[in-house]
Amino acid sequence: MPITSKYSDEKVETILTEIAAVLEKHQASSELTLMVAGNIATNVINQNVAAAQRKAIAEKFAQALVSSLED
């Protein structure tokens, strides 16, 4: 079953394009890019999710990431 989002593809793509431009400006390697993405995810979870729910949200996020990878 496909996952639907409440955000438009256009909005997501616009934000991704802007973030990619910043990473390119700083000549961020793949490793640094993944570190930054991980830190952003951690900060969002820590700042916006109740402590009791953080682990479950992080696990769902990790599962979604794995599911999104192409074989």
Q: What is the rounded distance between the termini?
A: 18 Å
Total of helices: 3
Roughly what percent helix? Answer: over 70%
Strand content: under 5%
Q: Label the overall shape.
A: globular
Q: SSE order, as H and E?
A: HHH
> How confident overall, as mean pLDDT?
93
Q: What's the number of extended β-strand segments?
A: 0
The secondary structure category is mainly alpha
Q: Which residues form runs of ≥5 with pLDDT under 50?
A: none
Could you describe the largest sheet, including whether it forms a barrel? none
**Total domain count:** 1
> Any idea what the radius of gyration is?
14 Å
Pfam family, one: DUF1414
Protein name: UPF0352 protein F9817_02935
InterPro entries: UPF0352, YejL_sf
Family: Belongs to the UPF0352 family.
Question: Summarize this, please?
Answer:
By secondary structure, this protein is mostly helical.
How would you characterize the overall build of this protein?
This protein has 71 residues and is an all-alpha fold. Helix content is 72%, strand content 0%. It has helices spanning 9-25, 30-48, 54-68. It starts with 8 loop residues before the first helix and ends with a helix. The chain is globular. It has one domain.
